[in-house]
Backbone:
């Protein structure tokens, strides 16, 4: 599919989608005869569609066959049919920016270069096109994403309770549970490869507290730090034991908290979705006693 702009790239709305590797032509004069190019394949004219790039012959080669093919593809519609002495200059002039890629509606994970094509007749520049072409394929965006995700290191949870773990909790009395709110926030890493920037976020989504007596609770946040004067319903992350830990190893329930981190990613600030989760756990022990009622007679 041809992509062209009359001396301007701002009107581009289509894209030429084939992989090309070319040598760069320099200077403002027509290319020399026999100048070789390094691409593979051949030029073919299918209603103006460029199928591939040159093989052995270059624009201006003595055989004239490649020149005629190039002219038919790039120049004939505007300048006219091929005439002896016509030449076609092609050179790669730089990478497309992210804005260029977005404007053309291309795959934001791709890498593209500008191919400048100039049609020469009677020793004068007759017409200029700018094409967007695929750069040679590199590492996929998914591979970059996985490399970036491997560098993310969500913190392990550090459980806190009230009463504190150094003291006993009591049956039928709520035990407050929480994690450090400072580490309950997304973390991110980005990496750029050419025109593609991959960003990965890891976000804590919930904490599952397993309390060692067969029960537990799932909290959607880090919980609330207990401070004197707070009402009992100030936190939605708590647990009430129904039995003491008497008879358990070391007189404690073997409990744990597991935080699930969800991984999302973006390509050049375009959201790509969730691609995985990681669970980070920490074990702790809870001693639970019973409050003994004392009866007195009158």
Residues:
């Amino acid at each position: 599919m041809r992509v062209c702009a009359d001396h301007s790239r701002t009107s581009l709305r289509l894209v030429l989608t084939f992989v090309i590797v070319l040598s760069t032509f320099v200077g403002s004069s027509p290319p020399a005869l026999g100048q070789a190019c390094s691409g593979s394949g051949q030029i073919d004219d299918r209603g103006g569609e460029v199928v591939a790039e040159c093989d052995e012959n270059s624009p201006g080669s003595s055989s004239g066959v490649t020149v005629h093919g190039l002219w038919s593809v790039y120049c004939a519609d505007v300048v006219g049919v091929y005439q002896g002495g016509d030449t076609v200059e092609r050179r790669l002039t730089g990478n497309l920016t992210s804005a260029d890629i977005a404007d053309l509606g291309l795959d934001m994970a791709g890498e593209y270069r500008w191919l400048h094509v100039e049609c020469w007749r009677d020793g004068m520049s007759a017409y200029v096109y700018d094409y967007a072409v695929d750069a040679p394929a590199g590492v996929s965006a998914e591979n970059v994403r996985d490399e970036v995700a491997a560098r993310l290191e969500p913190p392990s949870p550090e459980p806190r309770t009230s009463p504190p773990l150094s003291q006993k909790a009591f049956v039928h009395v709520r035990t407050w549970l929480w994690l450090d709110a400072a580490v309950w926030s997304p973390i991110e890493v980005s990496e750029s490869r050419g025109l593609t920037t991959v960003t990965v976020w890891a976000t804590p989504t919930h904490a599952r507290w397993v309390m060692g007596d067969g029960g537990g609770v799932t909290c959607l946040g880090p919980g609330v730090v207990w401070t004197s004067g707070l009402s009992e319903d100030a936190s939605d992350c708590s647990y009430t034991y129904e039995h003491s830990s008497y008879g358990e190893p070391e007189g404690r329930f073997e409990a744990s908290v597991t935080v699930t981190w969800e991984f999302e990613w973006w390509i050049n600030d375009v959201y790509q979705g969730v691609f995985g989760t990681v669970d980070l756990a920490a074990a702790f022990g809870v001693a639970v006693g019973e409050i003994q009622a004392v009866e007195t007679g009158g």
